[in-house]
Amino acid sequence: MGEQLAKLWRKISWSWSPGSERESSEAIVRNLWLHWFPAKITRAAMSWNYSLWLGTAAASLFFILTVTGVMLMFFYVPSTERAYGSIKDLQYAVSFGRVLRNQHRWAAEGMVAVVFLHMARVFFTGAYRGTRAANWLVGVGLLLATLLLSFTGYLLPWDQLAFWAVTVGTNIAREAPVVGGTMRFLLLGGTQIDQQTLLRFYVLHVFFLPAVLWVMFAYHMWRVRKDGGLGAVEAIKADRRMAPKPMPATKSYSLFGLTPGTSVQVMSSTELEAEDQVVSSPNLTRRIVLVFLIVFNATLLASIFFNAPLEEAANPAVTPNPAKAPWYFVWLQELVASTTVHIGPLTISGGFLGGILLPGVLLVLLAVWPWLDRSPLSAEGRWFPSSRKTQNRVFVVAMIAIVLLIVVGVFLRGPNWRIYWPGMPRPQAPTVL
Amino acid sequence: MERPDQSYEGRDFGWLVAMSFIFLALVAFALWREFHPGWAPVQARFRAAMEKYGGTDRARAFTPGIKQIWVPKIHMVDRCITCHLGYEWGSILPATLPEPLTPHPNLPYMDKHPFQNFGCTTCHGGQGWATTASAAHGGKDWNDPMLSAGIARRYDLREADLIQMRCNFCHRHDVTTPGMDQINLAKKLYKENKCRLCHAVEGHGGTKAPELTYFGDKDPELVDFTHVTGAHTLFNWTYEHLMAPDKISPKTTMPTFGFKPEEARALTLMLLSWRREVYPPEYIPPPIEEAPPAAAPPH
Q1: Hey, where are the domains in chain A?
Q2: Which of A36, A249, B166, B196 would you call most buried, defined as having the most Cβ atoms within 10 angstroms of its Cβ?
Q3: Residue pLDDT, tens place only, A260-301
Q4: The complex's ipTM?
């Protein structure tokens, strides 16, 4: 009886436990879904503290978004007359529709944040040097694709929030010199937000941008492999290079073994040693499932208790006061508003300076930074090394500035774009009745 | 043979188990919530009431679930009846049954306005899509709040007076409409005081004053509330402007007509009813002719 129970428990609690390294490697390379992972992974890359697993979290969020998004496509109608109603149906009448839409929304907001944090991690650890520079550039592309995906999705509910956020966003884009007007015209499919805009945003959102993102993601992962793993690997290699290997007593390095002493030093190779690595199956695979589960639980928890925003139906004739861009663009709106100068009757729009020039410079700087970086290569793969002090400080200041602008824009700005501190009474928006 | 290093097994496996349990708990909770909607106890009460007043057979015929009146040609889905189940059972359920099960009163015009064609929100306002009471009744994130007795009291009106505003979406071109005393009064005042000498409405009238055809669609954000004493609503602005135009808009050329409060309220209701609501022709009532003149005018 006891024997049988033990057997049963072993069956229930079965887990993959390879008997040899060969078996473990084959579990990776022979599997369609796993073969893009390395057969072995460094302990440094497995560390929670190094990568914070933000890239895996971002990929998990994107996977959740793809699945929930495809499910939402069975209900959503991309028409100005029916889009809003189909979202209301999801909210109130479709089984699990509310949770489904909420999870898509919160995962989307989360992905913008996590992708940004992942970029910050890569910057702080200097993991974009040498051959990794190309992958940094792909990463910047992935960040842009994520922002565009989120922005195109923002319009789809066709409520006041969606309509006016996209109005603000595309009006900022119009300020771009020469191409601004044309760009806005192409994006909107006309001069104002209407059915054509909804259709274009929908196609971009459900097909074009996800396809681009998946391709870039695949390349991003392939590059990680080709660049030898995470930047943390470089820190280990650097350590190895510095430390001499203990001299084996039985070996002579002189021509005929005649020269006495240990004068010929052999430094360790730049390759990783066996003790630096563990097998990917099941160490990495289990970890990825764990990170995915954490992310999934977090989004599901948020979806059960917090509803995604859904305001009144879009009405081009009624502008909410204030109309705000999506939160990840609010810092640009804040810049546009604060760089707009009034001199008597003259108004100089901050649209170009705050909306185009500054973010443009930031983006270009971000993209080419690996080639401008003059810090020593040995700084790669560690958090906040002293040789990267200045640039890390500048990056932190820029990050804090952006976050502060977002906080001000999202939480403090009230009617007529005035600052309302917490506790200050805000004027009630007038209503019909 | 040496087994491969699985250093992360202990900690990660523990967390994996913990996360799996949380995942299971969350899915179970989501499932439980899905099958325990807020309207379920109301429907149980309805079934009990039907059993009490209408007999077992009628109670058995009732199937629980989301109920709706769907009228595609006026883009209307009214799920109000998911809770307000007694609405069409006035012949069986007592009128004293507490809300939300109270049957709809059998008003004289109900024959011409069957539920199947008009639903609930056409007259009462509110959010027909919603299946929670607060979302269905409330004005938050929904610009057409249910015209409740509470809102009516704010303007010294009855609920039925407010609802006339919505009746006038279709009855706008009636000279008089039976049962619409507020709007009928307003139409009379509108004619007597010759509003169209200055205001253009539907392509007729003067150009001295603002066009009023779709006054009810006016964005309350664009109205100057500086001199309005009441709450900042378009109703109050319109009412106070009718009572004392020069006080609310100091630069106006509109004369003070000396309306009584009830007259100004009636005019406000009519003005707010002038909205860009598009109903199919079969919803627009045929004109009610005024009593014909005693003798045909000579040629």
Answers
A1: 30-242+283-417
A2: B166
A3: 544 444 444 456 777 888 999 889 999 999 999 999 999 999
A4: 0.89
